[in-house]
Amino acid sequence: MSSIKKYIAEFIGTCTLVVLGCGTAMLVGCDAASGSGYILTAFAFGLTIVAMAYSIGNISGCHINPAVSLGVLLTGGMSAKDFVGYVIAQILGAIAGSAILAAIFGLGGVTDATGGFGANGLAGVNGSAVAGLLVEIVLTFVFVMAILGVTSSKAGHGSFGGLVIGLSLVLVHILGIGLTGTSVNPARSIGPALFAGGDALASLWVFIVGPLAGAALAALVYKALEKGKE
C-alpha cells in the first residue's frame, strides 16, 4: 500500500470524525446536566471510529489521531516518515471537517449548541490547565493502551478490534466530556479551535500536549508489560 493512499485514508477518516463527532456535539449540545446530548456525543465519536476502522483500517490502520500514531511509532509499528505524513494528513482532515461544519451550520442557519464548533476547553475544570492536562493524559493513556492491546498480533481479537476501539472511545468520552470536552486527539482539537478562536485557541496547547504525553506513556507501559510477559 503506497504511503499516499495511507495519508489520504487518514485525511478522510479524521475529517469524518470531526464532522460526525463535533457535528453531533454542535447539534445536540454536550451539557452533562441534560444527559442525552452528552451520551449522544460520546457515541457519535465512538461509532465513527467503528465505521472508519472497518472502512479504512485495512488501508492505513485507521489511526485518525496523532496520539495514536505516536503510540504506534513508539512501539515500532510505523516509520518516522509515515508518522509525519499521518499527522499532517490528520490535521488537514480535521481542518477540512471543521470547514464542512462551518458551511453546514452557516448555510443552514443551525445554532451551534456548543458555542464553538465542539472545540475542547477547560470550563469543566474551572479553567485549570493542570487539571485539564491530567484529564487528557489519563484518558489518552487508557484509550491508547486499549488500541495497542487490541491491535497486537498476539491479541487474537481479529475482526472485533474496531468495535473494541470505538467503545473505548465512547468510554473515555463519558467521563471527559464534562471536564474538557474530551480531546485524546490533537487533530480533533486543532481543527475546531482554529474556527472557534478565542479561548479554544488559548487553551489548545493543553489538548496537544496532554494527549501526546498520555500516548507516549501508554506506549512505554505497554512495551514494558509485553516484554515482561515474554
From the structure above, extract its key features.
single chain, 9 helices, mainly alpha, 73% helix, 230 residues, 0% strand
Q: What does it look like?
A:
This protein is mainly α and 230 residues long. 73% of the residues lie in helices and 0% in strands. It is built from 9 helices and no strands. α1 packs parallel to α4, α1 (3-28) packs across α7 and α3 (66-74) crosses α5 (129-151). The mean pLDDT is 94.
Q: How many separate helices?
A: 9
Determine the fraction of residues in helical runs and give it as a percent range: over 70%
- Residue stretches low in confidence (pLDDT < 50, at least 5 long) are none
Radius of gyration: 16 Å
Distance between the ends: 31 Å
Oligomer: single chain
Short description:
With 230 residues, the chain is mostly helical. It has 9 helices and no strands. Helix 2 packs antiparallel against helix 6 (161-176) and helix 5 packs parallel to helix 9 (206-229).
